[in-house]
Design goal:
alpha/beta; single chain; about 190 residues; Rossmann fold
C-alpha cells in the first residue's frame, strides 16, 4: 500500500485543519496509508481522521517510543501504537529536543512515497520535510491555497525543484502517480 505523509503547521487554521481532514479521508478511502509526525495541528488532524475513517496511519515520532510530545497527544499515541504503527529513530532514554524534529522529518520523507504540505509558513520546520522529500526523489505536493498566498515564498521555491500543486482536481493524479511510482520502484528490484 502506498504511504503519504500529511504535514503542516502546529498552529493550523480551521481551514487548514479541514483540508488535512479531507485529504486524510480521501487517502484512507483509497487504501493509502497516512503518515504524520503526531504534532499538534495538521498532524493530529491527519492521524485522528484516518483512524476515524477506518484507514491505516503511521506516526513517526521525534521522541523515543516511551515518551510523548506533545503530552496532550498521549492517548492518540497509545491508540496508534496499539492498533496502527508508531516508529522512532530515538532509543529509549535518548535526549531529544528541537534538534530531533528535523531528523524525524527526514525519516518521514524517507519512509513515505509522497509528502503533502497542507499549511505552513516561510521558515517553518515543515519545510525540512519538503526539501528532504525532493532530495530523496520522493513526490512533494503543496496545497493550492499556499501557492495563492502572495506572502509565502516557499511554495514557488519548492515548485522550482519539482513540487506539485495539490487541489481537488489533482487528487486522482496524486493516486495515479503513487501507483506508477511504486510499480517503477518494484521493477528496480533485481529478483
Amino acid at each position: 500500500m502506498p504511504v503519504v505523509a500529511i504535514v503542516g503547521s502546529r498552529q493550523a487554521s480551521e481551514l487548514g485543519l479541514a483540508r488535512a481532514r479531507r485529504l486524510a479521508r480521501f487517502l484512507s478511502d483509497h487504501r493509502v496509508i497516512v503518515m504524520s509526525g503526531l504534532a499538534e495541528g495538521i498532524d493530529t488532524a491527519a492521524h485522528r481522521t484516518t483512524i476515524d475513517s477506518g484507514g491505516r496511519t503511521i506516526a513517526v515520532l521525534g521522541t523515543p517510543l516511551d515518551e510523548c510530545f506533545p503530552a496532550k497527544n498521549r492517548a492518540l499515541q497509545h491508540e496508534i501504537m496499539e492498533s496502527h504503527l508508531a516508529v522512532s529513530q530515538f532509543a529509549s532514554g535518548a535526549r531529544t529536543g528541537r534538534h530531533s524534529f528535523p531528523l524525524r522529518n527526514r525519516t518521514m520523507a524517507l519512509l513515505s512515497d509522497a509528502t503533502v504540505i497542507v499549511e505552513a509558513r516561510d521558515g517553518s520546520g515543515t519545510l525540512h520535510q519538503g526539501w528532504e522529500a525532493l532530495r530523496l526523489g520522493r513526490m512533494l505536493w503543496i496545497t493550492k491555497s499556499l501557492f495563492e498566498n502572495p506572502a509565502l515564498r516557499f511554495p514557488r521555491e519548492l515548485e522550482a525543484y519539482g513540487a506539485e500543486i495539490l487541489d481537488e482536481s489533482s487528487l486522482n493524479l496524486l493516486l495515479d502517480q503513487l501507483q506508477r511510482d511504486r510499480r517503477d520502484r518494484a521493477a528496480e528490484v533485481p529478483f
